[in-house]
Design goal:
With 354 residues, this protein is mostly helical. The protein contains 14 helices and four strands. It is globular and about 55 Å long.
């Protein structure tokens, strides 16, 4: 988690970021009339990448697998939908703090109840809380029930009468999501390399030893849980802004399962791995959906192959390419030869018999 990665990781991520950022320049030349559609898909990938990074703070950094993380994703979407005025756009200057505050409070309450558990018990308790909110929203008239809530206007980013960012413009919204993802990435990079991140690393390796050293591990895990919930809520708010509605499906365990598969594909505990996983998952999903109606089977087989062939995900393939890895048998043979050589170089002393 706190390892220093090879320089090629930074070069590859910078190249991919530049490629994505320049899509408005080359997208129409490559895709023609479908460029607007692919811009929308690319924007969704950026949003899901932020969502995946938030879950990686729990799964990859601490080792807490959550199947209820969609609770905060959907909560961010519904906070935007329910708090937005009906006939005018809300201001992003108060909407964003509201989404962060509501999600932080919810994560604090849920975290206080689930953070005491580990393993399968943590998985089941987070799943239970997520499904509780899902069924509550699905049966509530004020939230639109199973139909969800429509958002008539995207929030505005203005100073006085001057518009800083026109979020109704697809290109402006695309760059707004890209900027949010970049900020989230560097925030997690700083967090994981800080003293707080080092404690999380120790909890991931051996929580009992950290407790023996005097660390209140429950408090550290609770803070990480709240941070992950807030980041997921921001991603949910952006998703609601893109499609103009919030639906109960954003709260369901299927959404939590999908983002977990993104982590598996990308690589857990690497910060940049979830980004790659989100893009890879959505690209594969698009290809499989257009290839066959039985695309869930293909996606399931892909995840199984990824677990078997790439246990560290795409990130592991970049960090340690196959051609740079030493084969275990060759390494063992080399060690044996070195030991034999050292033994043969030592003088042989014969014992004298009386």
């Amino acid at each position: 988690m706190l390892h220093r990665y090879p320089k090629r990781v930074a070069f590859i991520m910078l190249a991919l970021t530049a490629l994505v950022a320049l899509f408005p320049l080359w997208g129409e030349a490559v895709f023609g009339s479908k460029a607007d559609f692919y811009l929308e898909k690319l924007t969704l990938m950026l949003i899901l990448a932020l969502f995946a990074m938030s879950l990686d703070l729990l799964v990859g950094m601490i080792g807490l697998v959550s199947l209820g993380h969609a609770l905060f994703f959907g909560l961010g979407a519904y906070t935007l939908a329910l708090a937005s005025p009906d006939f005018s756009p809300a201001s992003m200057w108060w909407m964003l703090p509201l989404v962060m505050g509501v999600s932080a409070l919810a994560a604090l309450i849920v975290g206080l109840l689930v953070i005491r558990t580990n393993g399968i018990f943590f998985i089941m308790t987070t799943l239970a809380f997520g499904q509780m909110l899902y069924y509550f929203i699905s049966t509530s008239q004020f939230a639109g029930g199973t139909d969800g809530v429509f958002i008539m206007f995207r929030p505005s980013v203005t100073v006085g009468e001057n518009t800083l960012v026109d979020l109704d413009n697809p290109y402006s919204f695309f760059y707004f999501c890209l900027g949010t993802l970049v900020i989230g990435y560097f925030f997690l990079r700083w967090l994981t390399h800080s003293y707080f991140g080092q404690v999380l690393d120790g909890i991931h390796d051996n929580e009992h030893r950290m407790q023996a050293l005097g660390y209140a591990t429950g408090g550290y895990k609770l803070v990480a849980f709240v941070i992950a919930g807030v980041m997921a809520a921001i991603a949910g708010m952006l998703a609601a802004m893109q499609y103009g509605f919030a639906s109960p499906a954003q709260l369901g365990w299927h959404t939590s399962g999908e983002v977990l598969m993104m982590l598996i594909l990308g690589g857990m505990g690497t910060v940049f791995g979830p980004i790659l996983g989100a893009f890879a998952y959505e690209i594969l999903l698009y290809l499989y959906e257009h290839a066959t109606t039985h695309w869930p089977i293909l996606m399931g087989l892909t995840i199984i192959v990824a677990v078997l062939v790439l246990p560290r995900g795409i990130a592991g393939l970049i960090i340690a390419p196959p051609w740079q890895r030493k084969h275990p048998a060759n390494a063992e043979t080399l060690e044996t030869e070195n030991s034999s050589a050292r033994a043969s170089s030592q003088p042989v002393t014969q014992s004298k018999e009386d």
